[in-house]
Amino acid sequence: MLEKHSSAGGKVQACQCRRRVVTFFSSPKALFLVLWTLVFASVFWWRTSYVDEVGFSLQLPRVRTGPMFRPVAFNLTDFGAVGDGETLNTDAFESAVAEIAKLGERGGGQLDVPAGLWLTAPFNLTSHMTLFLAEGAVILGVEDERYWPLLPPLPSYGYGREHKGPRYGSLIHGQNLKDVVITGHNGTINGQGQTWWTKYQKKLLNHTRGPLLQLMWSRDVVISNITLRDSPFWTLHPYDCKNVTISNLTILAPVSGAPNTDGIDPDSCEDVVIENCYICTGDDGIAIKSGWDQYGIAYKRPSINILIRNVTVRSVVSAGVSIGSEMSGGVSNVTVENLHVWESKRGLRIKTAAGRGGYVRNIFYRNVTLNHVSIGIVIKIDYNEHADEFFDPKAIPTLESIHFNGIHGQNVDIPVRLNGSKEIPVRDVSFRDMSIGLNYKKKKKNIFRCSFVQGRIIGTIFPAPCANLDIYDGWGRLVKRSVLPKKRNIGYSFL
Question: Transmembrane stretches, by residue range (predicted)?
């Protein structure tokens, strides 16, 4: 009887247990809890790599210094590099690039540079390559110029920019490349230019200084999310390149004592975007070029289709954005928009001279802010620095179709200086929506000055324009015809 009683009691308990289970699983909250537990367990099982005699060990995925942009990635340390700031790692960089060069048909390769100070002599990149600088990674250029190779002079310049004959190469260099990416988590390329600047000023160098980063005759280039600083010479120099995107760069050099450290110099380039950058250097923030005098004329490679937007520049000794003076191959179809220039000698500048030849046309400036700038807008046609004595003084540049819209600022000493000449007039210039607050601490006279300039004012601008320009109302109706001056006398020598 006792056994039967126990058996009956067990059946009752089993039935009650089944009811509880059914009731439990009929609850939405309970189902969610079960599913969540299963998902967690599956993830835990997936992350578990092996079980040994002690128990289990959880092996995490390998951490990379950057996201994968290529099918194969290498770490610089795989090639014996040491990031102590003292060991010379040129061989490691060159070996890594050589391995990536073998992978072109597979989509190329990526070289990850981890955090550390990676001293190196100049090295070349290859096609289908991504150079990725992790946060805290600094590529340091060796200071001894004996490690820097000598290259032939640029064909559109005739000879080295500072000395006849060969020129020093760049710290990071490439020629005839395709599909090159230089990016990172704001890692740094540092040219350690102080030694170069001192030797240049003391005339101790026998060759033209090299840029920090130079790509020549290349296409499909992306340079983004890194810091470039203390270049020996021009900082970033794309030369005769096509389809170049430069984005989210910080470019730095001392504002004085760092000669010719332009930020970005697109030179005889086509289809270029420069955007979202901060530039503070010892020369022009951005300078668009296309060759020098007769050599640039013969090379026949213009800079064309260039967009500059969302850029902040500080240039105490030069200009925020310049065109020229080396523009002998021509410059056209340039748009500069959403530009902020502060604490600079000049805001926007176009510079050329007789002997340059070439042209500057179809230039559009929109939404430009000038704060604490000595001279807001400058066109200068007597920048008489020539490649050699064989330039042709009859090679006259053409300046036309240059348009300013939405130019605003405060604490500007001199807002506008447009200096044409009888031989080199400036044609088809327009101003619309301009209001520049002046620095009234200095006596002002003829604050908007023009010479041999033809163009128009659309709507109302401040300060009042020069008499050379036609006045139109906001609906495009002529209000007042210009009065052309008979004399060329702008009266300045510091533009």
Answer: 21-46
